[in-house]
Amino acid sequence: MRRSGTATSSTTWGGSGRRIKREEREELTVTEFRARVLSSVNKLNKRETSQQGTNELLFILDQLNPNEDSLSIFMNCLLDTNEAQTSAFRKEILKLITTGETMFLFS
């Protein structure tokens, strides 16, 4: 689920602490991918884990290929919120959607 044309570099996956290179992209099933995104989204609602969740979602977003279904799954996970979410959570979701839009419209 990597965007084409990105430079090769090592990046740390926020939650696991293990290092993966962009060239060594993980192949996930739709269910696994959705679970990973939702896990990161859920971290946004807590002050202690908000930054970690944001970093994980930005990493995932950077790896997405706009020609795959993964982009629509990612955006659906971001938009699947309820009224119990904090206003800070909703603001962070909006920032992530805007970032994704900018990345894919101008790439």
Briefly characterize the structure:
The protein contains 4 helices and 2 strands; from the N terminus they run E-E-H-H-H-H. It has helices at 30-43, 50-63, 70-79, 87-105; strands spanning 10-12, 19-21. The radius of gyration is 13 Å and the shape is globular.
Ends distance: 16 Å
Query: How many helices?
Result: 4
User: Would you tell me the overall average pLDDT?
Assistant: 78
Q: Count the beta strands.
A: 2
Computed CA radius of gyration, to the nearest angstrom? 13 Å
What's the shape? Answer: globular
> Which structural category fits the helices and strands?
mainly alpha
Contiguous runs where pLDDT drops below 50 for at least 5 residues: 1-23
Could you give the order of strands across the largest sheet? Answer: 1-2
Major sheet: size, sense and barrel closure? 2 strands, antiparallel
| Residues in helices, as a percent range | 40-55%
Strand content: 5-15%
Instruction: Give the H and E element order.
Output: EEHHHH
State the oligomer: single chain
